[in-house]
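Q: I have two molecules that I believe assemble together. Could you output structure tokens for the complex as a whole instead of separate predictions?
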Amino acid sequence: MKRPTLLLCSTLLLSTLLAPLTSATEHTNQTVVGKLQNSALKSDLAYKIAESLTVEVGPRLAGSAENVVAVDWAEAKLKSLGFDKVYREPVTVPVWQRGTASASVISPFPQQLVISALGGSVATPASGLQAKVVRFDNLAALINADAATVQGKIVFIDQKTERHQNGSGYGKSVGGRVNGAVEAARKGAVAVLIRSIGTDHDRMAHTGLMHYQQDVPRIPAAALTNPDANQLDAILSRGQEVTLSLNMSPKELGNTTTYNVIGEFTGSSKPDEIVLLGAHLDSWDEGTGAIDDAAGVAIVTAAAKMVAELPQRPARTIRVVLFAAEEIGLLGGKAYVAQHASDMANHYIAAESDFGAGRIYRADVRVNPAALAAVWQSLSGLTAMNVELGDNNARGGSEVSLLPGVGVPVASLRQDGNDYFDYHHTPNDTLDKIDPEALAQNVAVYAVFAYQMAQSTLPLRPLPKK
Amino acid sequence: MKRPTLLLCSTLLLSTLLAPLTSATEHTNQTVVGKLQNSALKSDLAYKIAESLTVEVGPRLAGSAENVVAVDWAEAKLKSLGFDKVYREPVTVPVWQRGTASASVISPFPQQLVISALGGSVATPASGLQAKVVRFDNLAALINADAATVQGKIVFIDQKTERHQNGSGYGKSVGGRVNGAVEAARKGAVAVLIRSIGTDHDRMAHTGLMHYQQDVPRIPAAALTNPDANQLDAILSRGQEVTLSLNMSPKELGNTTTYNVIGEFTGSSKPDEIVLLGAHLDSWDEGTGAIDDAAGVAIVTAAAKMVAELPQRPARTIRVVLFAAEEIGLLGGKAYVAQHASDMANHYIAAESDFGAGRIYRADVRVNPAALAAVWQSLSGLTAMNVELGDNNARGGSEVSLLPGVGVPVASLRQDGNDYFDYHHTPNDTLDKIDPEALAQNVAVYAVFAYQMAQSTLPLRPLPKK
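A: Yes, here they are, computed for all two components at once.
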């Protein structure tokens, strides 16, 4: 792996504060780090945790009965691993049930299409709806379209998702999923179908959250699988008008309470200062949520446990937060920030694992620029695990991305996401998609990161301006 | 590619008849073969045919309304390609409708499992059934089991299918699909679930034909996806009793008539002698039947067309038979053999394409051993397309495997099947699984085979004893 020497050098030049690189403490820390890394790479603890969650709980959509089972599972699991404190904090979530979803071509070539309702979608009328299809290359093309071409039709947003290691293809296409229904309804559409936000060629649709807007009619929204989107394209390419039938029965059933589940290993000398490792306990409802996000739950839980098993407990507290409701709008993270508002100054740094189980190839942070070079020095052991030390623009990922806004330094330990969007939000998100060795590498990286941050004497605040 | 020199040498020694290898006719044929091969490799005709069938017809289970559309499509396609004769021959088939199929774990870890009814299965009671699960490694273990361990339970046959280029893993595991219901019911089981006969890790179950037996109760039969079979294994491994709920609503609706669709390019000098190229028009009902068997339909149709476009029509008639109902028990092939009983002596040789769209890597034949060496000589051009010349034990594939029993020589033009059982009989059998270049290589091989066999002066009968 390449290490960004140039970036590191310029950071060194810019820095006004350099930690003493060869202090005795630092030397001791680096010795511990080597042992921690070795034991983590050999451990199957994370795989066992991921297996336990996916097998004994399975799908666990926030607001569902299964999610309650997951909360109980998480508390029991953290207790069984010997966390010093284990507790839950309430999060209010809407209850949405998927029901059934089917689509078919009525004409010119009658056949079934495979779809999945987008999360939060309303139902069609009970008898379904039938309408002609109008296709757009992407959300922008829909926004720019004449309403007369859309009125009364089913809008088909047909943007392919690009495959990239860092997952950047997702950001380019996901707007159609999130905002497609609003933009289509503004122009009088009766429903919206999107090409799945996914990089696979499997006959499984990718669900995911969509939004409505108060002043715009709520129309049903679903994703076609990539092969079905290809099929609809091919049918449309014949030049005839294409009529689809759509039948979806999701239900909204008010609100309920679920919980962020929190486990802590108390710090030895700075117990009130927190290194936060996050992941999310909820999943979508069609897979067993293995890569999204049993892997993250397993990685951060196992990493904390590995650190706690060291002969010497580090200075700061390591807090694992298993967020309640990431998939349906970072609701667990928002509740955490609200409930811990008075406590945020004690959060030394935070990171979240929510991008599958691929190997970590790069670390970015968002810390006091004056401390950056020394932070990289303290994390230099990561390069032995093929982790490139990156930049100071980390967002922190998922719920943890809410924390820089309230002053908390964050890190993004970036996972190889080349295949993440093959499985993301599909029934295919199952345990077999996790490579145990790659998972263990994640644990080792998180463990080293957590240990060094729990021991660090660097001032990570204030954050750089955006 | 290796050529089996040893086998060829021994065949040469055994042969009593050797064709004149360097005759003027043979020289002309080989020149034609080179041109035919080049034009076939460049042609996208087969891909267009496969695209047309999968898009304009889609799924086409024998006995369904969609299958009637497929028969009309096939007649129209062969006519549009200029076949000299196009006709249909009736085949009686049972009508089976899949209905819905769902399964869930009731205890100890409630969750849905993804299943697909096996073809021909009966329904559960309308309210479903619930029973404990008993697992077996394979069909043999079930057959050897004490009935007391099976009585009243859902049998789970958990054999994995091995991946091999020649597809030989299928034969080892498919017995559980075909005979699992009978063997489980003999011991008092209430239903049977099999691990999908497939090599993938996708959350899609592999359907396929199963059988009942007159003196044994008919119990519902379904396939779990590989990830769901893993999940059930993991749940069972906890050592608790596992209770499943199963609800399936397939229907049997008597018999109907469908059709083998036949197209011929008439031979120039031996019009009554037939080189038969087969494939099957029907598919399972959950995918669009791209690799099974729109690919075969496309390959043999395009190959015949390429030969017919040569400046000189070859001696024998090339007959393309698009069989009506392979998936549900070779019913199209059986009808063909019955209807053409008096005509079988005129079938010079036959081959069928029904193993996807992977490149052909080997040719086997089943011909008069005395002619074998000369047959290989005439087909030696195939080696330029990386096709190994194999043995004299070909079965001919699918329906054509019925023909050696009535004296007809056959060839097996073997396709690379490494990924065939990733998609076979699943919703994932869609057009994107066909590689256009590999498809064109198939066309080129079939075209060369068809041309040389239509021109051959070798006596291919009698067949070797088994």
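A: One point stands out. Residues 99-249 of chain A form a domain with the Glucose Oxidase; domain 1 fold (CATH 3.50.30.30).
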